[in-house]
Amino acid sequence: MVRRGPAPGSRDWLRRRGGEQRRDRGARHRRGREQPDPKPFVWIPTSTQKSPQRQENFPQHDMFVEGLITAQFELKFTVLSDYLFVGSGGWEVTKDGRAYRTFCRRGDDICIPATSIKGAVRAVYEAITNSCVSQTSWFGLPPSYSARRCRERLCPACRLFGTTGYAARIRFSDALPLRKTEPKIVQIFDLFPPRNEQGRKFYAHGKASVVDGPPQRNHHFVEAVVGNTEFRARVTVFNAEYAELAALFVSMGLLGVNGRRIKVKIGGAKPRCFGTVRFELLDGKDWEGRTIQKEALFAELRNAFSLVDMEAFGRLADAAYRLPNCPRRLY
Predict the structure, then answer these.
(1) The pTM is what?
(2) Integer Cα distance of 73 and 86 in angstroms
């Protein structure tokens, strides 16, 4: 009989046996306790089988190009989740001594900075157009997804949202509430950065996880607006191709595919199911001030989905948490 594997008593044999014993103990320990809740996020994997659609030639900014779209669109978005929090980076203290992280403000009014909206939309746009991964280290990425690899050949997201050496062809305004809004101070469990990376990570939509009562250890307070709060903003595009505008509208949920739409998450505390919004297109004007007919534009954009990765779109459109509440603690 041919014996396979390390010899009994050898170093490799002892190492393997120790690993098996540890796994057995871990399995028995897990069986004796409550299983953790499903994780409230989805992964959009980066694949070595696909590469971003890079181009060497892309529109410049010194003139309006015939056949491309230069327009300004008026937007309204509604908070669908229980809360939305966009931090100012500052702290304040309530009369009863509770320190809380304040909501961003412009003057006396709360606002959502344009950078927060642009960053949230860009993350979705990068995923559904299979673009390079800009906000991470390049370690562990397939080489074709590194943003620093090809400065002369830009991926779809870098062509529209900009990169080093090439200005963006899209601009968002700050978002202001449609009516006077008083934020609410709520308590959530502390947040920690993810420890492993399996691709592009997006948090699912569900019922927010907050903690009532006095301050607790490993928790903190945030100032958040409540659900159904409405904001108004603008987005301007310069020399955009129809395929780029179609992918932008899909990533913002303005345009659906087969009856499904993406919901964008803005701001902080996304792991606690904060920040889900729904965008609506109110009005649009081209660079000459002429009103854009929304239905006619949408009809053209529905035939321009060449940049949209339908597999990634499907994962994001279906990103709903299955349990009644988001996990309250670590997961």
Answers:
(1) 0.82
(2) 23
